[in-house]
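subagent[fold] <- orchestrator: predict structure for attached chain, return tokens only, no commentary.
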Amino acid sequence: MSNRVFNFSAGPAMLPTEVLEASAKALIDFQGKGFGIAECSHRGKEFDGVLDEAIDRCRKLLSIPDTHDVLFLQGGATQLFNTIPMNFLNGTADYVVSGEWSKKAASAAQAAYGEKIRVIATSEETKFDRPPVGWKADPGAAYLHVCSNETVHGHRLAEWPEHPNLVVDASSEMMSRPHPISRSALVYAGAQKNLGPAGVVVAIVRKDLYPRIAKSVPKIFSFQALAEAKSCLNTPPTFGIYFLLETFRWLEAQGGLTAIEKRNAEKATLVYEAIDGSGGFYKGTVADKSARSHMNVTFLLPSEELTDKFVKDAAKNGMVALKGYRTVGGIRASIYNAMPVAGAKALSDFMGTFAKASG
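subagent[fold] -> orchestrator:
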């Protein structure tokens, strides 16, 4: 597949070629059975085997303890903005708002639960150019909700915070590095960044939260009911889950999450060095360099005209989807797990050439 470009889209995003090929093969003929994986019953032994293996590999990759369930859900991470408080809000909950997505999570919860949802810190005043600092969550809160990597604004929590009931939206960095699952209450991620096609959410839920769920919560939104049904309360996105399995296999073949973290750091360094070494031609949008994302690199050029030219010229050179988020502008290069080091190197080299030609 030599004609594939370097796709810097923030999601749905670039996926590993090996995973695409294996999944495409299974879509036509699963294990030589004469039917494809998307044609299997979700109640049949074929898909049950896929589900068991996917859960097992997910557990191994993230070192998930037996205290937590692994769920493959529908509705996107956005649906969980509502179902998390619906299930687990007993008392008040604390939210840290560090960007577009954590703001949406807090707003969705506030719309339903009002003052029970407390925004304890926000960096909105500085246009989300950094994660908020100096905040302290209430250890007695029902949970603390954070977004560990802000896709739009290009920064991350280098270390996840401590809380007895930590809830993390890890959508745009899930499995890009080892995560402290064992000390988290709930971690969730839309698949369309690092894990697979849009349509699946991976949720890892600590089982001791289940007694909080009110009987009035519909089963289809109950984490406990979904866990007891092994994500098959209704028909799950079977092909999307199979794709996750192939991604988990691929991640293991790369050496696991420690190896992936190292490669992602190498890619990020290449692009950030191009920004920092440009003499001010490129300006990073993250004020705190220690919080720069290793998944979404955001920066500005001197003018809109140069930004448009940068995007168009990059596309001519086989690098696409570099335009920044509509509310922010500038450039956003998403360098998820599937982006090879060669892609980050190509972008870094192009940035140097473009700056010299435009300076």
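orchestrator: received. Logging for downstream: The domain at 17-253 is CATH 3.40.640.10 (Aspartate Aminotransferase; domain 2). The chain has two domains: 17-253, 256-358.
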